[in-house]
Amino acid sequence: MLVQNSAVLTKNREVNHSVAGEMVRSGMCSLTGESTPDRAWKSLFKSKDVVGIKVNGLGGKQIATHFGVVKAVVSGLKSAGISEENIIIWDRLTKELKSAGYTINKSDKGVKCFGTDTNYDPYPEIVGSIGSCFSTIISSY
Q1: Is the pTM higher than 0.85?
Q2: Residue 1: inside a domain, yes or no?
Q3: Does residue 91 lie in a domain region?
Q4: pLDDT tens string for the chain (141 positions)?
Q5: Less packed terminus of the chain by CB within 10 Å, N or C?
């Protein structure tokens, strides 16, 4: 699926948040075959789900996952009944999220936003001969 709209970028190469939001809503309907964005989101997510949104903050504001797109995804998740407290925006390092313009929130209120550098599981998960410690963003939420 591909959603395009030349109006998403302003002359100053800033993202138009309302256009980005409409593109996300349109894309979700195309992806799911549902007639409305709310139905599209509800077809994929249940109200009790905990959802992590993996962004890319590396490279700062110019090439990071743009907040206008993330904001539209958060709005869609909320339309599916998912509470803000069950939404986590994350990347590998908190400092990269900050430099990309994200507001860090590690509290229990609202949408969480922080890096996986906050903590890892103490013991690795082993599959065959490979072992890895998962981020607690994955294992604890």
Answers
A1: yes
A2: no
A3: yes
A4: 899 999 999 998 888 989 999 999 999 999 999 999 999 999 999 999 999 999 999 888 888 998 889 999 999 999 999 999 999 999 999 999 999 999 999 999 999 999 998 788 888 889 999 999 888 888 888
A5: N
CA distance 141 to 137: 6
Helix (H) / strand (E) element for 113: namely strand 112-115
Gap between the Cα atoms of 136 and 119, Å rounded: 6
Structural domain total, the chain: 1
- Domain range spanning residue 15? 6-139
Residues 6+ positions from 14 with CB-CB distance below 8 Å: none
53 lies in a domain?
A: yes
